[in-house]
Amino acid sequence: MSSVKPSATGITRRVPRQERSRRRVEDLLDAAARLVVEHGVEALTTRDIATAAGAPVASLYQYFADKEDVLLALAQRDMAEMDTQVAADLAEVEVLSVRSLVRTTMLAFVQVYRRRPAFVEIYLRGRTNPALHRFGRDHNRQIAEGLRAYALESEIAHDELTVQAAELAVEVGDRIFQLAYEDDIEGDDALIEEGIAMVTAYLQRFEATRA
User: Fold this and answer.
1) Exposure pattern of 181-206 as b/e (b: 16+ CB <10 Å)?
2) From CA 38, how far away is CA 46, in angstroms rounded?
3) CA–CA dist 211, 91 (Å, integer)
4) SS in 3 state form for 76-140?
5) Residue 59: alpha-carbon gap to chain centroid
6) May I ask the CATH architecture of the domain 74-206?
7) Where are the domains of the chain?
8) Are 21 and 2 in contact (CB under 8 A)?
9) Considering only the top CATH level, what class is 2-67?
10) In 33-47, which positions are buried (b, 16+ CB within 10 angstroms) versus exposed (e)?
11) 2, 41, 122, 161 — which has fewest CB within 10 A?
12) How far is 197 from 70, CA to CA, in rounded Å?
């Protein structure tokens, strides 16, 4: 059995409920990720994805409308992994401050980029898919709102840290990652460190004064 949900492309996508069907979808996504790393986004085709996954192409179309829908699903999966990584890493921080919040969050992103090189190709290099671009902006907004709420609840920031300021910080961080991974799939560590310093300096304007 499977349920249906609308995808960001505007086309309804089947969501598998049975373990066998879920595994098939994961196999298709894993195959697409390998092909993206090996040959790039532009060369990717639904037929190649199905072949690499050892599945008939008709099986792919049971779950995805087209190549762009597969790429979007990959980005969604990897961003969910990123959210989990951020939460896990923040839970391990011993001394919470604006500096440690920014550093921990951005380095959590780096961990996922290194595990998921296809995500670098799909999300950081190009974003020619309008639905993917929209999804990325929406996800950045969710990250900003979540981190702002976390900073306020933890009392490391005062309430002058607006949603707009948090969104700006996340968007700047996103652009820093685009630049850091533009020419190197492993990323430019020096540029990432500069970016962490930049975002930290901006957000420290909103840091709460501790007694």
Assistant:
1) beeeeebbeebbeebbeebbebbeeb
2) 15
3) 23
4) HHHHHHHHHHHHHHHHCCCCCCHHHHHHHHHHHHHHHHHHCHHHHHHHHCCCCCHHHHHHHHHHH
5) 26
6) Orthogonal Bundle (1.10)
7) 2-67, 74-206
8) yes
9) mainly alpha
10) bebbbeeebeebebe
11) 2
12) 35
Do 2-67 and 74-206 agree at the fold level?
A: no
DSSP code per residue over 26-47: HHHHHHHHHHHHHH-STT--HH
Instruction: Give CA separation, 2 vs 41, 56, 171, in Å.
Output: 28, 18, 36
Query: Cβ(24)–Cβ(57) under 8 Å?
Result: no
Q: Is 61 exposed, middle or buried (CB count within 10 Å of its CB: 0-12, 13-18, 19+)? A: middle
pTM here is 0.85
The residue type at 2:
S
| Whole-number average pLDDT of the chain | 89
Amino acid identity at 84:
T
Measured in whole angstroms, the distance separating CA 202 from the mean position of its chain's CA atoms is: 22
Backbone angles phi, psi at 182, to 5 degrees: -65, -40
Residue 60 CB burial class (10 angstroms; 0-12, 13-18, ≥19): buried
The CA-based dihedral angle spanning residues 74, 79, 81, 85, taken in that order and rounded to the nearest 10 degrees? 160
Query: What are 26-67's pLDDT values in tens digits?
Result: 999 999 999 999 998 989 999 999 999 999 999 999 999 999
